[in-house]
Specification:
Helix content: 25-40%
CATH topology of the largest domain: Aspartate Aminotransferase, domain 2
Distance between the termini: 60 Å
Number of helices: 14
Shape: globular
CATH superfamily of the largest domain: Type I PLP-dependent aspartate aminotransferase-like (Major domain)
Largest sheet: 7 strands, mixed
Number of domains: 3
Structural class: alpha/beta
CATH class of the largest domain: Alpha Beta
Strand content: 15-25%
Radius of gyration: 23 Å
Strand order of the largest sheet: 2-8-7-6-5-3-4
């Protein structure tokens, strides 16, 4: 009998057979380097069960799942923790739907993940964007200035806007940059405003004192972490942690939302993967992370000595940087460098944007892996000088420029969607046009433009930087 063609299985098999050195999520990097991971891999079909006698129910845990969640909560020092199997996107939906009231106001960092903007767009709330500082070398979002955020909240309160439900922030950013949440949480607590933190890339923070402090320990009301990003868990494994001031009055709403946004058939394999990854971090994390820190310091020092490489490092970020992330900027466009690394050196990065390339390092990596990465980058640059771009040091403008939302202006003119036509325009031809759809470079999944936002010259620069050729715009009919 001729076997059926299985394109997904074939594609995954091809990737496996390339023997790629992975520096991209998920955080096991294709290796079962620990006995716990090997045991899970060997029993993957045996453990793929449903809610039967002797198991439990993630949506209403009473036995083994409840015990597991209690252990995770103790490790992360939270009031309560939950495991989700639909990824951090579902966790953000849960958090926002629980703590953001209809018809209220919200302050949201503009560099939040697209899922935040999506659910805010579906709730009847007023969103006030706070823009992150921009890294002058890498031209990416850097951090939120706590003083500017507090001043913004004070200004809104002074205007009589007292129903601010929450502030929603991303910390760390994709490159591992963090900022001081404590001052922000203290201020918000005094004003009875919730702090929601998308901490997708920070699940490993509590396991080494040289890593940044996590959100819950700094007073966040709730944080959402992707276990599959920086822990050795399978994709979609996620955790929600509640801060110790999380109100009892919102607990029922929270748990109803978890059941609403989560599948009614949660995967035991993903649950076991999340539990196992946390156990591995608790058992081996500190020592392994100490080794990674030493290896990364050596790697960054060597790369920094190369005049063609700029390194996104802890010294660059005043010790608020995750040392498990390696970001570099070179005279070769990131997408080109990424492709050469993959094809000629069998190395896959996490992402490339502009002239930047990002690599993620975790517990299953070895010192030899880091040495090979550094040597490959140096050899690539030496052998491809013809690809150097003179615009490497040019000012591309901000990657996430400030925008003006004209939705209310359009509606006040008595126009609605029936009066608007959507057309596609070349980016070079844009001039004060109104964006008709979300424009989201992915990764990292941060909206550059939202519908009804006016396109200015800085936005055009950013669109060209991200290599957009055309976008859809509104016109009045």
């Amino acid at each position: 009998m001729k076997p059926l063609y299985s394109p997904i299985v074939q594609g995954l098999s091809n990737y496996r057979d390339e023997n790629i050195l992975r520096f991209h999520m998920p955080g096991h990097y294709g290796r079962s380097s620990f006995p716990e991971l090997k045991y899970l891999a060997e029993n993957i079909f045996n453990f793929d069960i449903t809610e039967v006698e002797g198991t439990d129910n993630l949506n209403d845990p009473h036995e083994m799942i409840l015990h597991s969640l209690n252990e995770i909560s103790q490790i992360y020092s939270s009031k309560k923790s939950y495991v989700l199997v639909n990824g951090s996107t579902s966790g953000l939906y849960v958090a926002i739907d629980t703590l953001v009231d209809n018809n209220s106001h919200v302050i949201a960092a503009r560099n939040c993940h697209k899922s935040v903007h999506s659910i805010l767009g579906r709730k009847n709330v007023n969103v006030h964007y706070i823009y992150p500082e921009i890294d002058e070398i890498f031209h990416n979002d850097s951090h939120i200035d706590s003083e500017k955020l507090i001043a913004m909240a004070d200004a809104l309160l002074a205007e009589g806007i007292t129903d601010i439900s929450a502030v929603i922030l991303t910390c760390p950013n994709y490159f591992g940059r963090t900022f001081n949440l404590k001052d922000i949480s203290d201020y918000l607590s005094s004003k009875n405003i919730f702090l929601i933190v998308d901490e997708a890339h920070g699940a490993h923070f509590p396991f080494n004192e040289c890593l940044p402090e996590n959100a819950i320990s700094q007073g966040a009301s709730i944080s959402i972490q992707s276990a599959h990003k920086t822990l050795p868990a399978l994709t979609q494994a996620c955790m929600i942690h509640l801060g110790h001031d999380f109100p009892k009055s919102r607990m029922e709403r929270l748990e109803k939302n978890i059941n609403f946004y989560q599948t009614s058939s949660p995967s035991y394999i993903l649950m076991a993967s999340c539990e196992t990854s946390v156990a591995i971090m608790a058992r081996y994390g500190n020592d392994r992370l100490n080794n990674i820190k030493i290896w990364m310091e050596s790697a960054k020092k060597k790369l920094s000595a190369n005049p063609h490489i700029k390194v996104y490092s802890s010294s660059h970020c005043n010790n608020d940087q995750d040392f498990c992330k390696l970001g570099i900027k070179t005279p070769i466009k990131g997408s080109v460098l990424e492709k050469i690394l993959r094809q000629e050196y069998k190395i896959q990065c996490e992402m490339s944007t502009g002239f930047n390339v990002l690599f993620m390092i975790g517990l299953t990596h070895t010192q030899d892996d880091i040495i090979r990465l550094v040597k490959s980058i140096e050899a690539l640059l030496k052998n491809n000088e013809l690809l150097f771009d003179d615009s490497f040091e040019s000012d591309f403008g901000l990657l996430y420029p400030k925008t003006e939302n004209v939705k209310n202006y359009i509606l006040n003119k008595g126009e609605n969607n029936e009066h608007l036509l959507i057309i596609s325009k070349n980016v070079s031809d844009l001039d004060e046009d109104i964006c008709a759809e979300e424009i989201i470079p992915y990764p990292p999944g941060i909206p550059l433009l939202m519908p009804y936002e006016k396109i200015n010259k800085d936005i055009v620069k950013a669109l060209k930087y991200h290599e957009f050729s055309e976008i859809k715009c509104f016109v009045t009919v």
